[in-house]
Design a protein that fits this description.
The complex is a heterodimer of chains A (230) and B (224). Chain A has 230 residues and is an all-alpha fold. Chain A has one domain. Chain A is globular, with a radius of gyration of 21 Å. By secondary structure, chain B is an all-alpha fold. Chain B has one domain. Chain B has nine helices and no strands. The chains are: A mainly alpha (230), B mainly alpha (224). At the A-B interface, helix 4 and helix 5 of A face helix 8 and helix 9 of B.
């Protein structure tokens, strides 16, 4: 187990470098947008990775509420943190892409708007975790995660309906994708997923150690106080 | 053994009686509502035609502020006298307490809305082009959406640091679809377009989140 982490780290580094090379050099240049379009290979995989992580957060929260396993709570925390990071990447690369292509930094189109709301919901989850006292945080956070996940279909539907009433320029375009581009996209997604997994694993271990230390301190102070009263 | 409905009614009446005697919250809320409407009138000074398009948003932002101020004091009384602990050890169902609080807040915010609306109508010369009675439905559904989640999140924020700011931080993101629905429905009714889809959205939002609150409240209450 100890060797698995550095091996995976090296593999991820290789995969990320390969994916970078594919995205910047090998992938064909887009017809209308030119080289700027290559941001697509970061924007889209980040979004997919964020969605997967938020789904993991939802499942882990339910598992925690039902089984009360501390490991599930740590998985929920970790997946939310890393998911927010990837979601931030989506929200930053989006405007960077939009500016040269559409001339505007932001537009309230369906995808960007719903990603922003998703980001807000999970940042509020992290705020709750940060601000609440340690005893009951896991239960409260799990409840909030469930609320957030329930909210997601409403977010998508309401913004979709809002936008079909008042159409705006769509970012990224619909339609079919060149198979070579799809290939590069999937490689980047694989690289990002491995990286996300690595970060989550590392953060999991860190959190577990922190909790073990806190618990050890608590037990030690209990032991000391009972000794002193005897 | 009192029924859950009986417990809800008793708790709600208790809250209303306490509020009626002290008139703490209602006085400050009244003045706050008036201030909000006046500040908005200075900030947004549109013509009568423009106002119909943006009034939906303005009104609901004002109601949102009023609701947050009302919600923040929901549980304050219970903590002061350790009523919450007593409730936890009693056999009374947790949901009765939740519903009593939620109904109380709903009543409260509705009174505030009823007071603020004529002011808005006067200051913005509002007149609904579409069916005005639908505005009552939108108001009820929208207020319930804010209040049911707000009461739940207020309970969750009880033991957090910076309790007062936690409530809006948790409530606003989750409420975004509902806020969009309320604002769009109100604007649609004022400008004479169809509001049906938005009303349906609000109704389903209310059903889903009321159910979620009722299912999870006991756990949250016992977690404190």
């Amino acid at each position: 187990m100890k060797l698995a982490f550095p091996i995976l780290g090296v593999l991820t580094a290789i995969l990320l470098s390969y994916a970078l090379y594919m995205a910047l050099v090998v992938a064909p240049t887009e017809q209308t947008m030119g080289d700027v379009q290559r941001i697509f290979y970061y924007h889209v995989p980040s979004a997919w990775t964020a969605f997967i992580l938020f789904t993991i957060n939802f499942v882990a929260s339910i598992v925690y509420l039902v089984r009360r396993k501390p490991a599930a709570d740590i998985v929920a925390l970790v997946s939310a943190e890393v998911g927010v990071v990837f979601c931030t990447i989506v929200l930053v690369t989006g405007p960077i892409w939009a500016r040269p292509v559409w001339g505007i930094w932001w537009t309230w189109d369906m995808r960007l708007t719903s990603t922003l709301v998703l980001w807000l919901i999970y940042v509020s989850y992290l705020v709750l975790r940060r601000f609440s006292a340690s005893g009951e945080t896991p239960v409260l956070a799990a409840a909030l995660a469930i609320f957030g996940a329930l909210c997601v279909p409403f977010v998508y539907f309401s913004i979709w309906f809002f936008r079909t009433q008042h159409p705006q320029p769509v970012m990224g375009g619909g339609g079919s994708i060149d198979p070579r581009m799809l290939h590069v996209l999937l490689i980047n997604w694989l690289a990002f997923s491995c990286f996300a997994f690595l970060v989550c694993w590392s953060r999991y271990r860190l959190e577990k150690v922190q909790r073990d230390v806190e618990q050890a301190h608590a037990m030690a102070s209990l032991g000391q106080s009972s000794r002193s009263t005897r | 053994m009192p029924t859950p409905a009986g417990v809800t009614r008793a708790t709600l009446l208790k809250d209303l009686r306490l509020e009626w005697r002290s008139k703490d919250a209602i006085n400050s809320m009244l003045f706050f509502s008036l201030l909000v409407v006046v500040v908005f009138s200075f900030s947004f000074d549109p013509t009568a035609e423009e106002s119909r398009r943006i009034a939906g948003g303005l009104i609901w932002v004002a109601f949102l502020f009023a609701a947050v101020v009302a919600l923040n004091q929901t549980w304050a009384r219970e903590i002061r006298n350790q009523v919450l602990d007593a409730y936890r050890v009693s056999p009374a169902p947790a949901n009765s307490l939740f519903l009593a609080k939620a109904f109380g807040n709903f009543l409260f915010v509705t009174i505030l809305e009823a007071l603020m609306t004529p002011l808005f109508i006067a200051f913005y010369q509002l007149r609904a082009v579409g069916p005005a009675w639908q505005l009552l439905i939108v108001a009820a559904l929208g207020t319930w959406a804010l209040v049911v989640n707000g009461t739940f999140f207020a309970a969750m924020s009880l033991r957090t640091r910076s309790r007062e700011i936690m409530l809006p931080l948790l409530l606003f993101p989750i409420s975004i679809p509902a806020i969009l629905g309320m604002v769009q429905a109100t604007t649609a009714i004022l400008t004479g377009e169809g509001a049906r889809v938005w009303i349906a959205l609000l109704l389903s939002y209310d059903l889903v989140f009321t159910t979620a609150c009722l299912l999870l409240f006991e756990m949250v209450l016992n977690a404190e």
